[in-house]
Design brief:
By secondary structure, this protein is of the alpha/beta class. The chain has one domain: Metallo-dependent phosphatases (Purple Acid Phosphatase, chain A, domain 2, 4-Layer Sandwich). Helix content is 16%, strand content 30%. It is an enzyme of class 3 (hydrolase).
């Protein structure tokens, strides 16, 4: 079974990208799932720490064989021109241990507007910058938070899916949310 590493909302922060890639390496995950908003910070957000979308894209491209990504509301066709892996799809469906993982950014589908999923499937999204791990009508609803600009007093965070357990962790490795797919 693959160990999956989930990040969202990099927003062009070179500082947090480097930090999260060190964590990815130490977690020994197989793939990086990016839930959108890789390069641009968006007009509503302040500039993130060490904002450098050009270098962020260059570093992400070195991991292109390990990345599965979806488009965020701040991502554009111009971003696809510099990123060497697909980023323009609103969602992706990934099969994991006999369940569908519906991967999306969260600006179209989210906990308040679920896609059509079967009992036991999961929607995993970013966008809100707020960690979440809950079950809603027998669907797992998960958000790993934001690595660069968390909101509502939450820490910078990421997600790990390993052995049917999804953990949202802060950048020090502390589990802040957890949900088991076996329950």
């Amino acid at each position: 079974m693959n160990k999956l590493f989930f990040i969202s909302d990099i927003h062009g922060s070179l500082y947090y990208l480097k930090k999260i890639l060190e964590i990815y390496e130490s977690e020994k995950a197989d793939y990086i799932i990016i839930l959108g908003d890789e390069l641009y910070h968006g007009p509503r957000n302040p500039l993130p720490k060490d904002y450098n979308p050009k270098e962020v894209s260059q570093i992400l491209n070195t991991y292109k064989d390990k990345i599965i990504a979806v488009r965020g509301n701040c991502d554009s066709e111009v971003d696809q021109m510099v990123l060497e892996y697909p980023v323009m799809d609103t969602y992706s469906i990934f099969l994991y241990n006999n369940r569908r993982l519906f991967l999306t950014h969260g600006h179209v589908y989210n906990r308040d507007k679920l896609p059509y999923l079967n009992s036991g499937d999961a929607i995993i999204y970013g966008h809100t910058h707020i960690p979440l791990a809950e079950k809603q009508n027998d669907i797992f609803v998960i958000n790993p938070g934001s690595i660069s600009m968390p909101k509502e007093g939450n820490p910078n965070s990421y997600g790990i899916l390993d052995d049917d357990i999804f953990k949202v962790k802060d950048l020090e490795g502390n589990t802040i949310k957890e949900i088991s797919f076996n329950k």
